[in-house]
Amino acid sequence: MTSYPNRDRLVIFDADGTTIDAFHAVEQSFLRHGMAIGDLERFQKRRKMFKYLGGLREFPNNLRRQFGKQRRKLLLATLTEFYREEARLYPGIAGLLQALLAAPHVRVGLVTRNVTMEPEETLNRLFGRHGIDMAAFDHFACIPLGEDKTFQFRRARERLGINPARCYACGDEYGDYAAAIRAAMYPFIVAYGAEDRLRLRESFGVPDEFIHSSPGEFAGRLLHALDLAVDGAPDEVRPPSGVSTPCDRAVPPVPS
């Protein structure tokens, strides 16, 4: 029988598309180089490898303007600068993070595939503009694009000695959902980032109960699951009327 040294709970966040409005950052960076990414609705429906190439309308121009190492380097520099100086957290997310970081017995982590230059410095500056000190996070990992997050999820909970049943992983893609389940953690998946509710549910089989349509719904349900009071919290982090979080519901296996 495995025993755990504490009764802490762990919440691990994805950065882009879950806490940070990455679509807006990419959209604006593209525009500054004469490119377009299309609207959010079409962006969310694209297959992963095509998301940042645009749709049929945008693809030819984007491909031409991204062709060549120097042009890609300039685009990356623009994206990095935008993240550091202008990118924003979704409404209510700063308050949510501050509440969790201040809560006793709640540990907070961030696992990200952020693609900017020196991503840790980028995120330090972005979160710092919103009053979030990344040094207060209990776990941080920036992993390569395409790398599965399961290892980092497990590493965080094992290092902190936390019961998997008291761990939550929050993301905006099917891969985040699958990694959470493989790491024996409860998934909170948002539908306002890289993938919409229909794609998550119909294409990947993510149960509807794990999907949250807005930052407010997501924040409210997470606070509810952690037994943290939301009285007096801003409207954007209050759970919708009548919402109950299925915390004690068994998580189904990852669809093959």
From TrEMBL:
Known pathway: Organic acid metabolism; glycolate biosynthesis; glycolate from 2-phosphoglycolate: step 1/1
Enzyme class: hydrolase
Enzymatic reactions: 2-phosphoglycolate + H2O = glycolate + phosphate
Source superkingdom: Bacteria
UniProt EC number: 3.1.3.18
Gene Ontology MF annotations: hydrolase activity
Database matches in Pfam families: Hydrolase
UniProt region (Disordered), positions on chain: 235-256
Keyword annotations from UniProtKB, A to Z: Hydrolase
Family the UniProt entry places it in: Belongs to the HAD-like hydrolase superfamily. CbbY/CbbZ/Gph/YieH family.
PANTHER family assigned to the protein according to its UniProt record, in alphabetical order: PHOSPHOGLYCOLATE PHOSPHATASE (PTHR43434:SF1)
Protein name as annotated: phosphoglycolate phosphatase
